[in-house]
Amino acid sequence: MSENNLLPYNTMRMNADSKGIIPIYSERDVFEVLVEQLSPLKIIGGGSNVLITQDQDAYILKNEIKGIEIIDEDNDKVLIKVGAGENWHQLVMWSISHNLGGIENLALIPGCVGAAPMQNIGAYGIEQESVFHSLSAIDLSEGTTRSFFKEDCKFGYRESIFKNECKGKYIITHVNYILSKNHKLNTSYGAINNKLEELEIANPSISDVANAVISIRQSKLPDPKIIPNTGSFFKNPIVSISTLKTLELKYPEIVSYPIDDEAAKIPAAWLIQHAGFKGKRVGDAGTHKNHALVLVNYGNASGEDMLSFAKQIQDGVAEKFGISLEPEVNIW
Ligand code: FAD
Ligand code: NAP
């Protein structure tokens, strides 16, 4: 395998070449790459949210900017500055060891801190937006540094400006978060309360909630080190209430969660499962047996195999339910 091969750098274990893989330890390293005029450039963190479908005619900047620093605090809150190359789960563990709340529900999400604002990572009723303060990024075409505050980032459900109009334009170097010293826990989502009851924990701490989330995730989700995957492959579709009502007439058991008076979210996993794709496998591309939303590479699937299988799922769901599934992963 060539030293420029991306296979060790993506959790779907896609075998693809690049023009070069350049580790970035500081902002200065980014400016040096820009002075050398290496182009085009792409950025990778943990590679847990990309599907690489072809050799990359690009230099890949591997973000390794580290550091977690408290830069301000008062009686209630702490402002921290985090290097974009820090591992997200290690940041959650750091927050717990400092008894700071706000991100405990986001335990065990793979990847780096710099990618967290990209799709506004979320789980168990919390999105990183709820603790986000600002970030620093370098404009790769201008070579200038810029701060983005919350209102600049246009965060949405698994969305931000960096996935849309600013796609590929910036490398995020640091993210600043506000964590809480007197945090109100959110345990109402999904299976957290059940897990806490099972563990006989009546008054949970931040650490108890994180441990409950870790335990649920470990029991449900395939570990990418064992079965290569990128987590949820598609976003959960949001439909109008009138569409939902029509579907409910035909499928009374359909699962949905209201967003507001006009829209509701339908779990993509439910749609995929009921379109017959849970645990289905075509060659080495498939959906996981326990979780229909997680596409997995059972061995040597190529990017094209994965894409073509994803397309079969999209077509199957569209045909049965009239709903179009949009990929959550970044297709390279
Ligand atoms: P990468 O895959 O390396 O990059 C993703 C995108 O961001 C790419 O387009 C890349 O170019 C860009 N990017 C990365 N770093 C930077 C940077 N510093 N500056 C600019 N652009 C950058 N996601 C959730 O939201 N919630 C979950 O609960 C969740 N669970 C998961 C479970 C599993 C088992 C797996 C495999 C994935 C899961 N994910 C989840 C998806 C993924 O972990 C997150 O999206 C994560 O934030 C990706 O981080 P990364 O460093 O691996 O990003
Ligand atoms: P789950 O708890 O079985 O729930 C299935 C779906 O229903 C989820 O997608 C979730 O939407 C939605 N849901 C559940 N309870 C809800 C509530 N009270 N209000 C609104 N929506 C609700 O899901 P899971 O697959 O095991 O995942 C658990 C959490 O981890 C979810 O938040 C999920 O997003 C996150 N996760 C994300 C990825 C990824 O790669 N993006 C991978 C694994 C897990 P939401 O997805 O909108 O929360």
Low-pLDDT segments, ≥5 res? none
Strand elements, count: 19
Order of helices and strands: EHEEEEEHEEEEHEHHEEHEEHEEEHE
End-to-end separation in angstroms reads 20 Å
CATH class division of the largest domain: Alpha Beta
Order of the strands making up the biggest sheet: 5-6-11-9-10
Gyration radius from CA atoms, angstroms: 20 Å
Multimeric state: single chain
Task: Give a description of the structure.
- This protein has 332 residues and is of the alpha+beta class.
- It folds into 3 domains: 7-63, Uridine Diphospho-n-acetylenolpyruvylglucosamine Reductase, domain 2, CATH 3.30.43; 68-180, Uridine Diphospho-n-acetylenolpyruvylglucosamine Reductase, domain 3; 229-331, Uridine Diphospho-n-acetylenolpyruvylglucosamine Reductase, domain 1.
- The chain is 24% helix and 24% strand.
- Strands 5-6-11-9-10 form a 5-stranded antiparallel sheet. Strands 12-18-17-16 form a 4-stranded antiparallel sheet, with helices on one face.
- The chain is globular and about 60 Å long.
- It starts with 19 loop residues before the first strand and ends with a strand.
- The mean pLDDT is 96.
- The protein binds flavin-adenine dinucleotide (FAD) and NADP nicotinamide-adenine-dinucleotide phosphate (NAP).
- The site of flavin-adenine dinucleotide has 33 residues, from β2, β7, β11 and β12.
